[in-house]
Every structure is written in structure tokens, then in C-alpha cells.
């Protein structure tokens, strides 16, 4: 029997789940849920009985001294609730964080769904991370999938067509479908050649996609700086090994070629819509997450700002220029419009400037490096 003593009535609750193990490459998914729990000071209200679902020879308990007293902590799955304050609007999140169970997966899922039913959860979002052939120098691909065709259309998600071995993420999503609970899985792709945890860049990508999905602005704390440090560290390691650098370059070329058709189509429109949704809001502490691991709104010349470099080429060690964001696009359009209006007011001055700044603007438009960039920095489209 499910006991919910002390849990208040929730506001538009969404359940966010992540499980350590096979579904959690680089610990990206479990770290994302742990971050939400810390930032919003979650309160644990329930935990599943460890003996029902875990093999303690696989997931061993730990022992620690607390005030001179030995205490054993058993591997389990815990549920906590946090209230996400987003200006005038508030929303409650039910956070489920644990370890992929060793046994009785169907009973495990039924118990979680029992809590979802009692709490009035409107949707279940399950976070996962997988190893893939993706370069660490590019935005982290995040795919959103669901087995509900109506939900796929309304939330612009992929309808899952996967066939093969699955983990608790796939089993829980299927259990939600049978129970009539809307469910979505968000998967981040982690470079297989840097699979060891943590991977803060993948965690940021998941939080960014989650923020768009549930319309809640997520404070980042130190995740942004952690992501930059991770990026710099992998760049340096790749630059020191010619074989790794060559392999990363081949992954970059394959990724850029695959995404080229999107550079002038739906991906740019999607990024511009995201910018319009966010431009009137205030970012959380440290800004808000982007799938490239940076800030969507940075200071001039600072990290993530218009003067910041994008990523270092692991083969040459040279920095690449940052790809312009939709905000830069709007600013450039406004600047060009203002210049055109000034030329119209004084045609003689405009004609006299043909050999100066006017040529720079012309070259910028033709090359596209300042106006359009060479791709969609934040699309993060998954497979």
C-alpha cells in the first residue's frame, strides 16, 4: 500500500526519472535528476524496498560512520518532490532517482506508476544517455521519443521505432503506455571514446531539452563551468594524440555532413523560436543550458558571449569562431537596417564609404559566417 503522508497537493506535476547503470552513459541522466533535486532542495517522501528489486552482490550496500556510529546505506530508488518556481508560474516535479533494478522489473514499474497515479502526475519524462559515434566538439545530440503517436505530434517528438535489447527506461515507458500515462524518453548521445563519468556537457543538453519540454526554467549552478572545464580537458587530451585527433576530425566531418540539410531549414527556425520564447525571461543562476554546453545569453566578450571562441580544433589546437546565435542574427539585421536608413538620409556619404565599411558588410553577407553561421548550434537532434 502506498503511503503519501506529508506530501502536499501538487501543482501540474511531472515525474522525472533517471536510473544509474546501462541507461546512463557518463552518468549524464542520473546527474541531471540529482542536479534538479539539489537546486530546488528536494524532499524525499518514499523509497522502494531494496530487497524486492536488487541483487546485493551486483549492487552492494555501503557502510559509513556517522557520529561514530556505523550505518549501512542500501541501493534503492527514491522519490522526492520539488517546486519549480518560474516567475508567476509554479510547477511541481516528482523526481525518481535510483539504480536499474536487478529483478522484478514489471513490479518495479507498477510501483512507480502507483505513486504517479496517487500524485496526479500529468506526464512521465525518463532521462537516459547512450554511447555513440558523436564528436565531443559538437553539440550533444538529444533525441526525444515516445510510443504515443498523438504525443509525438503535439510535442514534436519522434515516435519510437527501436527494436532490440532494452533497459529499465524502455520497460518503464512501455508500462506508462499500457497504463495510459503520457511518457517521453530523452536520450543524450555520449562520445564513446570519453565514456567515463561525469559528462557535464551531456547533462546540460538533457536539462536544456527538458526545460523546453516542461516549460520550466532550470537553474544551472556550477554545471556550465564544469562543462567548459570538461570540454577543455578533452580538447587537450585529443590534441596530444594524433590518432585520436584524426578520429575526432572524421567524426566531425561525418556529423557536419549529416546535418548540412538542416542548416537553412527547420533547425534554424526551431532555434529562433526558442530565442523568442526566452528573450523576455530572466535566466537562472549562471544562465540556462544549451546543448553545446554553453550559455544561451552571455556577456559581451565573456563565455558564451559574442566575442567568445566556439571550440578548439583538437588536431590543430586553434580556436574556432563561435557560431552566431539567433540573438546575433537579430542584432545584425537591426544593425544593417539602421545603416541602410542612414545611407538613405545622406546618399553622398553612403557613396563615399563604398571602399570602407560597406565592403566589410558585403563580404559578411556573402560568406554567411557572421549572418548565418555554418549550422544549427543548438539543435541537438538525435537519431
Overview of the molecule:
It comes from Streptomyces violaceusniger (strain Tu 4113). InterPro entries: Proteasome_assmbl_chaperone_2 (IPR019151), PSMG2_sf (IPR038389). This is Carboxylate--amine ligase. The strands form three sheets. An eight-stranded mixed beta sheet has the order 2-5-6-1-7-10-8-9, with helices on both faces. Mean pLDDT is 75; it is low at 282-331 and 339-383. The chain is α/β, with parallel strands linked by helices. A hairpin with a 6-residue loop joins strand 11 (309-312) and strand 12 (319-321). The protein has a domain at 14-222: Rossmann fold (3-Layer(aba) Sandwich), CATH 3.40.50.10900. It has twelve helices and twelve strands. The longest helix is centred in the last third of the chain and has 20 residues, at 326-345.
In CATH terms, what is the fold-level topology of the domain at 14-222? Answer: Rossmann fold
CATH architect. name of the domain at 14-222: 3-Layer(aba) Sandwich
Helical run tally? 12
Relative strand content: 15-25%
| CATH class wording of the domain at 14-222 | Alpha Beta
> Helix and strand string, N-terminal first?
EHEHEEEEHEEHEHEHHHHEEHHH
Q: How is the biggest beta sheet arranged? A: 8 strands, mixed
* Strand arrangement across the biggest beta sheet: 2-5-6-1-7-10-8-9
> What is the tally of beta strands?
12
- Structural class, please? alpha/beta
Q: Mean pLDDT, rounded to whole units?
A: 75
**Spans with pLDDT under 50 lasting ≥5 residues?**
282-331, 339-383
Residue share in helix: 25-40%
Distance between the termini: 40 Å
CATH superfamily of the domain at 14-222: PAC-like subunit
Radius of gyration: 24 Å
Shape field: globular
Biased composition (Acidic residues): 331-346
Organism: Streptomyces violaceusniger (strain Tu 4113)
InterPro entries: Proteasome_assmbl_chaperone_2, PSMG2_sf
Region (Disordered): 277-383
Amino acid at each position: 500500500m502506498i503511503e503519501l503522508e506529508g506530501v502536499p497537493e501538487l501543482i501540474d506535476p511531472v515525474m522525472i526519472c533517471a536510473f544509474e547503470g546501462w541507461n546512463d552513459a557518463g552518468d549524464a541522466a542520473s546527474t541531471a535528476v540529482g542536479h534538479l533535486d539539489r537546486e530546488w532542495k528536494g524532499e524525499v517522501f518514499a523509497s522502494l524496498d531494496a530487497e524486492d528489486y536488487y541483487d546485493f552482490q551486483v549492487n552492494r550496500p555501503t557502510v559509513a560512520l556517522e557520529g561514530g556510529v556505523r550505518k549501512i546505506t542500501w541501493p534503492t530508488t527514491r522519490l522526492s518532490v520539488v517546486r519549480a518556481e518560474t516567475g508567476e508560474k509554479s510547477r511541481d516535479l516528482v523526481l525518481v532517482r535510483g539504480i536499474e533494478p536487478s529483478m522484478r522489473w514489471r513490479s518495479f514499474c507498477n510501483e512507480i506508476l502507483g505513486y504517479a497515479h496517487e500524485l496526479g502526475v500529468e506526464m512521465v519524462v525518463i532521462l537516459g544517455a547512450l554511447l555513440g559515434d558523436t564528436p565531443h566538439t559538437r553539440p550533444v545530440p538529444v533525441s526525444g521519443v515516445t510510443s504515443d503517436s498523438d504525443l509525438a505530434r503535439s510535442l514534436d517528438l519522434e515516435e519510437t521505432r527501436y527494436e532490440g535489447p532494452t533497459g529499465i527506461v524502455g520497460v518503464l515507458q512501455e508500462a506508462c503506455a499500457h497504463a495510459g500515462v503520457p511518457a517521453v524518453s530523452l536520450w543524450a548521445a555520449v562520445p564513446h571514446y570519453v565514456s567515463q563519468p561525469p559528462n557535464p556537457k551531456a547533462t546540460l543538453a538533457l536539462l536544456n531539452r527538458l526545460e523546453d519540454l516542461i516549460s520550466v526554467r532550470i537553474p544551472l549552478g556550477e554545471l556550465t563551468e564544469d562543462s567548459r572545464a570538461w570540454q577543455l580537458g578533452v580538447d587537450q587530451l585529443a590534441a596530444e594524440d594524433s590518432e585520436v585527433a584524426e578520429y575526432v576530425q572524421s567524426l566531425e566531418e561525418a556529423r557536419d555532413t549529416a546535418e548540412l540539410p538542416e542548416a537553412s531549414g527547420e533547425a534554424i527556425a526551431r532555434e529562433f523560436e526558442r530565442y523568442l520564447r526566452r528573450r523576455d525571461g530572466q535566466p537562472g543562476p549562471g544562465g540556462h543550458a544549451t546543448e553545446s554546453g554553453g550559455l544561451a545569453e552571455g556577456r559581451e566578450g565573456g563565455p558564451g558571449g559574442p566575442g567568445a571562441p566556439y571550440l578548439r580544433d583538437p588536431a590543430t589546437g586553434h580556436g574556432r569562431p563561435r557560431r552566431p546565435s539567433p540573438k546575433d542574427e537579430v542584432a545584425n539585421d537591426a544593425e544593417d537596417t539602421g545603416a541602410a536608413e542612414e545611407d538613405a538620409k545622406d546618399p553622398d556619404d553612403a557613396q563615399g564609404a563604398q571602399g570602407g565599411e560597406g565592403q566589410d558588410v558585403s563580404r559578411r553577407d556573402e560568406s554567411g559566417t557572421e549572418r548565418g553561421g555554418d549550422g544549427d548550434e543548438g539543435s541537438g537532434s538525435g537519431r
